[in-house]
Amino acid sequence: MSKRCLIETSQKMNGVAAIHSEILKNDLFKNFYELWPEKFQNKTNGITPRRWLVNCNPDLGDFICEKVGPVDQWIRNMELLQSLKNSVNDHGILTALMKIKLENKRRFAQLVKKQYNIEINPEAMFDIQVRSLSA
């Protein structure tokens, strides 16, 4: 599907963060933005730690607890996660994070195989979006 068809048929175009929305409007889809500025918007959903991180990614939540402190503290005060910035070049920490990510992707690949009989490579890049139909 071409970019033109995608934009023409879409009700809205949304970046995942304000900077992404600006890139869409000012660079990537500038001509379309000039035609239909009302289609371009920014709604950053952000992260809900209690729902997404703690419940849906428990291994990552446990890892953060090891580095930052008890979950009941950092889920209420996300500023505590700022201390992880000091680890951005720590090879051991980055390796542990990649291991968590790969294990999550392996579980996802197993689920896809079980439910749809489709084999996917857990080492491939996944771009997945989920939207609740009840909202």
Automatic annotation (TrEMBL):
GO molecular function: glycogen phosphorylase activity; pyridoxal phosphate binding
Entry EC number(s): 2.4.1.1
Keywords: Carbohydrate metabolism, Glycosyltransferase, Pyridoxal phosphate, Transferase
InterPro entries the record matches: Glyco_trans_35
Reported cofactor(s): pyridoxal 5'-phosphate
Gene3D superfamilies per record: Glycogen Phosphorylase B
Keyword Glycosyltransferase: yes
GO cellular component, one term: cytoplasm
SUPFAM superfamilies named among the record's database cross-references: UDP-Glycosyltransferase/glycogen phosphorylase
Gene Ontology biological process terms, A to Z: glycogen catabolic process
Recorded catalytic activity of this chain's protein: [(1->4)-alpha-D-glucosyl](n) + phosphate = [(1->4)-alpha-D-glucosyl](n-1) + alpha-D-glucose 1-phosphate
Record-linked Pfam families: Phosphorylase
Entry similarity comment: Belongs to the glycogen phosphorylase family.
Assembly information from the UniProt record: Homodimer; enzymatically active. Interacts with PPP1R3B; recruits the phosphatase PP1 which dephosphorylates and inactivates PYGL/glycogen phosphorylase.
Biological function: Allosteric enzyme that catalyzes the rate-limiting step in glycogen catabolism, the phosphorolytic cleavage of glycogen to produce glucose-1-phosphate, and plays a central role in maintaining cellular and organismal glucose homeostasis.
Protein name: Alpha-1,4 glucan phosphorylase
Organism: Hypsibius exemplaris
